Structures are given as C-alpha cells and as structure tokens.
Amino acid sequence: FCSWISLLVVMTGVSYVTYVKLKVSPLPTVPDKYWGKGDPVPDDTTVYYFTINVSDTILNDLKARIRSTILAPPLEDVGFEYGMNSDYLKVILNYWTNEYSWRKFETAFNRFPQYKTQISGLNIHFIRVTPQVPPHVKVLPILILHGWPGSVKEFQRFIPLLTKLRKDENFVFEVIAPSLPGYGWSQAAAKTGLGGTQMALLMKKLMLRLGHSQFYVHGGDWGGIIGSMMATLYPENVKGFHSNFCLVYSPLKHLLGSLYPPLVVEDKYAHRMYPITKKLEFLLRETAYYYIQATKPDTLGKWDVQLCIIY
User: Fold this and answer.
1) How many CA atoms does the CB half-sphere of 58 hold within 13 Å?
2) How many CB atoms within 10 Å of residue 12?
3) Distance (Å, whole) CA 204 – CA 230
4) H/E element holding 139?
5) What is the recorded membrane topology of this protein (predicted)?
6) N or C: which end of the chain has fewer CB within 10 A?
C-alpha cells in the first residue's frame, strides 16, 4: 500500500512540474522557410483565378493503367486481415474505370471560385467564396482545413451552408478552403521539414495575403492539428478554432486509469480506453501505413513505379 502511495505522490509531483513548465513556457517562433525548388526567391504575391481542367490524355492514360493492373488472388477465407483484399479491389478499379465521371465532378467543383497564389515558394490552391449580403450583415472569414487522405472536396456540400444567410441571423461566413501543400492542386514542398507547425505559418500567411488579420479556423484530421497549432501560435490572428479531430493525450492520466478506470472515465466509457493492452495491440496492427509514410514515404512511390514498369 505504501508503495502505491509513493508512486502516486511522485506522479502527482511530475504532473505539477510539467503543468507549470507548459503554462509559463513562451510560444516558439516558427522560422519562415522557403519550400520551393532551389535557392529562395521572392514570392509572386499575385492572386489569380484557377479552373480545374484535366486533359483527356491524362484521364485516358490513367484508365489504361488501371485496366492493365494485374492482381494476385487473395488467400482463401480471408477478408481484410492482411490488408486490401484483391477481389474487392477489382470492384473499386471497375468503378473508377467505367462508372466514375471526372468531368461531372470537374463541372460541379468549378462552380466555386478558385484561386492560386505563391506562399513561401509554393503555389497554393484555394477556394474562396465571399457572400454578397446587405451592409448590416457581418461577414466572418473562416479558414477550413482538410486532412489526409482528403482534399477540399470534403467541403463541397457545406460551403453553401456557411455562405448563405440564415433566417434570424445577422452574420454569414466568407470561406477560404486551401488545398494543403502536396494535396490537390497545391504544389508539394521540394525540401524536407514541412510539417504541421510549418503549414500553420503558411496558412496564416495565406489569410494575411487575402486581407484577413483576424479570422476563424476549422480543421479535421491533419487540418485539425494544423488549426490547433495556428490557434496556439497565433492567438492574435485566430479569433476562434473549431475541430472535429480533438486529441487530448495524458500518459499519467492513462496510467492511473489503467489501475483504476473510474479515476479518469465514467464506467460506460471505460471500454473505449481500457484495457490499454488491447488498445496498443490495435495500434500496432492498424498503423503500419503510418510508420512507412512517416519514415520511408518515397518507398511507396518508387514501388508503384516499379510495378508499372514490370507490368
């Protein structure tokens, strides 16, 4: 019993010291780096219109490569335990080749005003919808950020909801929805080190470029992480932050809960957190993609190229 009391006292002390340090630590300054190719050059600050227009040559080439794909048969009596099931993958490939209409998507998406501008050496694509409303109606700028594996298409349905004035309300949103660097029609970094913190700075620079020194932010998945960093690093710019990807991780809290779950969670929710061994087993089994993308992302791309050459 005494050993448990001692452990609890030590852990409480460590938590208090950590809390104090986090509370008083100054915010870091994020270096403004150049992410384009070669040596840094001044950005072209022009904001110009952009329209999606993928050529038939590219679309036909993609369909030809999909049709020429050779798939190994799956193991017997196996679903998705070992990864993608090739029988199901055939259904997906058939859909993309014979049923999906890129032109239909292209036409629908081009209804949104789209632009590009250069930020820190990268050409960034974004949607900007500015509602036309009476003078007494407030127009609030909001930056909405997608995640992985995603794109600005995630916002296709609810952008009109944000930009349309509702009955008995005196405000509406101006929506800015950028494609994150390397996604969609935004240029990928040519140099290493472009993470969530650096993207937070890029997104702030985009909003300043568009004339918004104060704005709201929404983000999901990686967009939620980037938005959280923006709200933390630039509180003078971010008036409010909303996320559907809220993460709170406390090792001490999880450890105490593993000993006695009611300390940290209601009984009806305990199964979502404990036992920790099962949660760790799930992470080990289902996050292989994360580790290869985090450590050897080029391997995936090079392997795809090799398969194309072989077949």
Assistant:
1) 5
2) 12
3) 7
4) strand 138-145
5) Single-pass membrane protein
6) N
Decide: 35 and 180 in contact? Cβ < 8 Å. Answer: no
Reading the block at residue 215, the tokens are 């704005």
Two tokens, residue 162: 């944000």
pLDDT tens string 254-266: 778 888 888 888 9
Strand partners, 172: 139
Do β-strands 238-243 and 171-178 pair in parallel, antiparallel, or remain unpaired? unpaired
Q: Which residue type does 74 have?
A: P
- Amino acid identity of 12? T
Q: What is the pLDDT of residues 172-214, one digit of tens each?
A: 999 999 999 999 999 999 999 999 999 999 999 999 999 999 9
CB-count burial class (<10 Å; 0-12, 13-18, 19+) for 40 = exposed
Q: Give the whole-angstrom CA distance, residue 6 versus residue 161.
A: 55
Please give the structure tokens belonging to residue 214.
């104060």
Contact status, residue 237 vs residue 204, Cβ threshold 8 Å:
yes
Report residue 48: phi and psi, to 5°. -125, 155
Q: CB under 8 Å to 78, separation ≥6 — which residues?
A: 85
**Rounded to the nearest 5 degrees, what angle is found at the Cα of 294, between the Cα atoms of 293 and 298?**
50
Reported as type and span, the H/E element at residue 6 is helix 2-24
Q: Cα–Cα distance between 302 and 308 in angstroms, integer?
A: 10
Within 8 A by CB and 6+ apart from 219, the residues are 144, 145, 146, 147, 225, 226, 227, 228, 241, 242, 243, 245
